[in-house]
């Protein structure tokens, strides 16, 4: 494995960290799970009606979350995205910085590989520092999580903070612990009812 | 008779009015010269939340999220921008049944001077048809409001994206700067 040289963060586990995020959600926050293991582990943490699981459209977790945040400014919205997916759509960070929604938190799982396609290394494994990129795009509130305690603290601060924030966590190569049911209409319908954008089923 | 009574309504004024009457509040775009008067008018109207994105896919993602949160949205782009969208349409907007409104300023025909634009234009309608996306090429101002209003309502009612191809016959298009 190529060593990540851009920072000294502890290597943690995506499922454990996802659970830590979900456990902190007390106000029906919306969560967008990016394509692949990011949404699989979100699914594994319990199928909240306010979760949206991406089945395609690699790179669009943050744009989808931004759209929800614009439509529902009183609800906090989180995007869980992988390093490869973020690298595919880096421009979205510049857009988020310009719009500066107060209710958006972006969490990046950086394992340095395109895990689901055969574990080829990503640019973040060797040379690209995702937090430096996010800061450069204009998201001042961007930080690596040093360890689990630091991650907890950063997420809690982001959920009560006054601006878009981005948290990156180095994670291990363990696969997700479950797989999302791949039914896009049901996922979208449930999410909209979970957000009150459609009346809840009786 | 004053100027305001004799003045004909411009295509972009009809687009803006129809978006407003259908409560389409979110407008995302990747810039296009021909769309400039529409983009300027949208920015100037506080009814709309209007902003540029770095890619058309990003814009479609934002409009998808907004729809799921209860806000209607549209994406403005040119022909070459549409050509970047098939994956996001096929794996997000179509399977998730998102009534994204796609406005495409048509390049590549009726006097195109850039071979790249002419080639990419040929891919647009086959892609829309392959994905089963309702699409209309609008050439006339007198048909514009009817097509937009009915199609926006249909998109919402049937939960499906729709594409409006704005022909140079409607907008004047982009002319070769000799």
Structural commentary:
- The complex is a heterodimer of chains A (202) and B (178).
- Chain A is α/β, with parallel strands linked by helices and 202 residues long.
- Helix content of chain A is 37%, strand content 16%.
- Chain A has 8 helices and 8 strands.
- In chain A, the strands form 2 sheets. Chain A has a 6-stranded parallel sheet, sandwiched between helices. A two-stranded antiparallel sheet of chain A has the order 5-6.
- In chain A, helix 1 crosses helix 2.
- The longest helix of chain A is centred in the last third of the chain and has 12 residues.
- Chain B has 178 residues and is of the alpha/beta class.
- Chain B has a single domain, classed as Thiamin diphosphate (ThDP)-binding fold, Pyr/PP domains (Rossmann fold), CATH 3.40.50.970.
- The radius of gyration of chain B is 16 Å and the shape is globular.
What is the compact description of this entry?
The complex is a heterodimer of chains A (202) and B (178). Chain A has helices spanning 14-23, 37-44, 61-71, 83-88, 91-99, 130-137, 148-159, 184-194; strands at 30-33, 51-53, 77-82, 104-110, 113-114, 120-121, 142-144, 165-170.
What key phrases describe this protein's structure?
heterodimer; A: 202 residues; alpha/beta; Rossmann fold; 6-stranded parallel sheet; 37% helix; disordered N terminus; B: 178 residues; 9 helices; 48% helix; globular
Distance between the termini of chain B: 39 Å
Q: With helices defined by DSSP (H or I, 4 residues minimum), what is the helix count of chain B?
A: 9
Strand-and-helix sequence of chain B, N→C?
A: HHEHEHEHHEHEHEH
State the secondary-structure class of chain B. alpha/beta
Taking all residues together, what is the mean pLDDT of chain A? 94
CATH topology name of chain A: Rossmann fold
Structural class call of chain A reads alpha/beta
Instruction: Give me the oligomer status.
Output: heterodimer
How much strand content do the residues of chain B show? 15-25%
Give the count of structural domains of chain A. Answer: 1
The second-level CATH architecture of chain A is: 3-Layer(aba) Sandwich
Biggest beta sheet summary of chain A: 6 strands, parallel
Average pLDDT of chain B, rounded to a whole number, is 95
Number of helices of chain A: 8
CATH topology of chain B: Rossmann fold
Number of strands of chain A: 8
